[in-house]
Automatic annotation (TrEMBL):
Positions annotated to bind Zn(2+): H204, H350, H354
Residue spans crossing the bilayer: 68-89, 186-207, 222-243, 250-270, 282-301, 313-332, 352-372
Keywords noted in UniProt: Membrane, Metal-binding, Transmembrane, Transmembrane helix, Zinc
InterPro entries reported for this sequence: AdipoR/HlyIII-related
The keyword Nucleotide-binding is assigned to this record: no
Domain of life: Eukaryota
The protein's name in its UniProt record: Heptahelical transmembrane protein 5
PANTHER family referenced in this protein's UniProt entry, alphabetically: ADIPOR/PROGESTIN RECEPTOR-RELATED (PTHR20855), HAEMOLYSIN-III RELATED FAMILY PROTEIN, EXPRESSED (PTHR20855:SF105)
GO molecular function terms noted in the UniProt entry: metal ion binding
Subcellular localization(s) per the UniProt record: Membrane
Membrane-topology annotation of the record: Multi-pass membrane protein
Species of provenance: Zea mays (Maize)
One matching Pfam family: HlyIII
Example GO biological process: response to sucrose
Length: 380
């Protein structure tokens, strides 16, 4: 459905009493150069619509509809994950949850319950008693003191055996058991994911309004991608090298500097040129692929001794595969390259790319949960 010009919004009626404004969709050939990005998508373009109509087009059908909604729903998903994580995974050694179910929900609740158990064991250790000294009730439940004498020193440390629901015992230091590991790296990642998804959704929605709007929103989109990649490194670097602050700073500082450099490079107007699509894909792919270095380093240090390190690496590998597939589809522009015009509304490469990004980001969230399970029990 091509049109001869990009004058898509016009007065649809000459009646002075009831003048009706209408915005039409146009074809690829009618677009100005700054809006031409994928010649294999032939129609259903919005072009230089007024801002009000552009924003309201979120509820209409065009070739950006699914791009807008896929990442908008992804943003809401990660907002719910952030709220859920804050409520279920305690940060101060307490939790309101007392039941456990199947993982994911069940495993997070079980983690909360374990944290309460760790705190109770630490309180028992305040009395300088070994775990075996705690009395058992008739139903087999351990009776744990709920307060410590004022003169009890918090500097005493005792090894405590805690029996998990799977029957395996974990040895925990009483001096650190009461306080879970800090959660800020995981929440930083969740914020980075939300920033990426929201800026992407806004970009796809209003980019068509004007050339200036396109320039600004595309740079925000690139900044959001960089934010996702950078914050993805924070749980990996912080929790993996918890016992080595120098390595923490090295890895976190390096990826932050790379992210800032990528955002700076994206400010160059030519960065958005269609012919530079492979370069854009390569730039952000290399940023993400550099995560293989700290992952390999983590496995070298803890691969044989910490199941949490291996489990988190598995999710990170899955994330890498999903992101890699997404970038490959984005750069190759398939399947629309094989059947131009057939995937204008549904199924073109950028929509598939969005789905792979959400799936990869969700896999990395699971890796973050594995880090918390590991480091809540195994600290330095």
């Amino acid at each position: 459905m091509a049109a001869s010009s990009c004058i898509a919004c016009n007065n649809g009626s000459t009646d002075e009493k009831e003048e009706k404004r209408k915005c039409d969709l146009v074809g690829y050939e009618a677009l100005p150069e700054w809006l031409k990005d994928n010649e294999f998508i032939h129609g259903y373009y919005r072009c230089e619509w007024p801002m009000k109509e552009t924003v309201l087009s979120i509820f209409s059908i065009h070739n950006e509809t699914l791009n807008v909604w896929s990442h908008l729903l992804g943003f809401l998903l990660f907002l719910c994950l952030a709220i859920f994580t804050a409520m279920v995974i305690p940060r101060n050694g307490s939790s309101r949850s007392s039941n456990s179910a199947a993982y994911q929900l069940g495993d997070l609740v079980e983690m909360a319950n374990m944290t309460v158990a760790l705190r109770h064991e630490a309180l028992a250790a305040c009395f300088l008693l070994p775990p075996s000294a705690a009395a058992l009730s008739e139903d087999g439940q351990q009776q744990i003191p709920t307060s410590c004498p004022p003169n009890t020193s918090s500097s005493h440390h005792h090894a405590i055996q805690i029996q998990s629901s799977t029957g395996t015992a974990a040895t925990v230091d009483a001096g650190t058991a009461a306080d879970p590991i800090t959660r800020w790296p995981l929440f930083a990642y969740l914020v980075g994911a939300m920033v990426c998804l929201l800026t992407s959704s806004v970009c796809h929605l209003i980019l068509c309004h004007s050339e200036r709007t396109a320039y600004v929103t595309l740079r925000l989109d690139y900044a959001g991608i960089a934010a996702l990649i950078v914050t993805s490194f924070y749980p990996l670097a912080y929790y993996s090298f918890l016992c080595n602050p120098a390595l923490q700073r090295l890895y976190m500082g390096s990826i932050t500097a790379l992210g800032a450099a990528a955002v700076t490079a994206s400010l160059v107007p030519a960065f958005q040129a269609p012919e530079l699509r492979p370069l854009r894909a390569a730039l952000f792919s290399c940023m993400g692929a550099s995560g293989a270095v700290p992952i390999a380093h983590k496995l070298l240090l803890y691969g044989g001794t910490a199941p949490g390190a291996v489990a988190s690496a598995g999710y990170e590998a899955l994330m890498g595969v999903l992101y890699g597939l997404g970038v490959a589809v984005y750069a190759a522009r398939v399947p629309e390259r094989w059947a131009p015009g057939r995937f204008d509304l549904v199924g073109h490469s950028h929509q598939l790319f969005h789905l792979f990004v959400i799936a990869g980001a969700y896999a990395h969230y699971h890796a973050g949960v594995e880090y918390l399970k590991w480091r809540d029990v195994d600290k330095c």
